[in-house]
Amino acid sequence: MDNETPKNSSFAFRILFGACRAFKEGLFKRFGNGRSINIDSDRWHPNIHLKPNFPENHASRAQVARVSDLIDHNKRWRPSIIWNLFPAAEAREIFATHIPQHETEDEIGWSHTKSGNFIVKSGYWFLNGEATNLVSNSSFWNQFWKSNIFPKWKHFLWKIFNNALPTTDNLTRRKIKGINVTCRLCNKKSESLEHLFRDCHIVQRIWSCSLGIVASNGINLPIQEWIKNFFELVQKKKKKEEGMSMEIDFVSTLWGIWIHRNEVTFKGMSTNPERIMSIIKEHSLRAGKERRNRKEITGLRDQCLEVEDPRHLEWSIGKEAVDNVKTIVVDGAWKKNVRTNQCQAAIAWKNLNNDPREESATKIFANSAVQTEAYAVLKAISDMEWRSAGLIIKSDNSEVIMALKNKLGTNQNIDNIIRDIRRKANSFLYISCIKVSREEVKLAHNLAISARMS
Asked: Of 286, 304, 322, which closes a domain?
């Protein structure tokens, strides 16, 4: 991280050093106390390189070299210095960064995962220059692997997405000799993923008959993008059952085309569209039956096991059987102005007994909705500290409560806030944070909205 090159080291050590250096652009110094972070050379934000407007030898840079120099003795940002040294957008990002109230050393973080922890998959994509692609498609892949279809179909689709099926163009590219490159179905054009699964005139008739899809409309798209677009269309269906049925029919059509192509290639069968349709029908029925059986088994399992419902999450410390337990609601209001690309945020909390002395609403700097909600919980606990022996906090944000329950850290954007919430919670005999509906936190929500718009 500090560009130190090893001297007089072994060959094995230099190899390890080279491997570490290969990942350097994906690493950043995770902010703790800021004493080891140079504001000129180090990246300490996962997505942005925060750089001062003025070089180190400028007069305004006297005694300002480390991030710790931007913090006063009360562990607060020094606004006059930050506004002077950094562009406005970067200054807002700094103010949105939480300063841990207890002594925490700076650490090394990985910028291509939400948690900031390195995983091999993200490292692989990073080294292949596809880290941004991994992030942009992460929601699609999450839905894809969770889809209720045969595992062999998922593997089959994964091969299509990664251009790993042994079509004749791929075999030729791998220098396999003696390959007939023409399409096994039409015997007219070269076989590629696009041609075999969409552009072949026989296959286009299959798509029209099985799902009413005019395959020729997507002829300019890569096959991977064409398939992905259909999956995303299915996920937007309001009727979930209808979407699942379409998903099964779509994948079974791809599967039927591939199975019959292999029958023609290896069994000497003649191309027969009726055979493809029979394969599609057979596998669609099997997949539908399998999905219904799995749904019944899952339902029975959920009845037998205690499954944690995201709608009823709770994190607590201590025993509820204490006197003077107060119940408050918290909420954060966060909005990003698309035109100016600036964020506005406010947080609020309110005691449900409607005591006007036990409520608060204030504007803050925050860079996401979940960070705003985490700040709201921290503010409520800080303000109510020593006012009561016990505290019940109601929030409509499940991610914050999940982060409180998970001590390993789940979101680097709120991890420092979560640590301070846990630390302050120890001053109460009992404390609980419960996930509730948006309607139940309406009192705090209205306060936060008013503060944000003031």
From this structure: 304
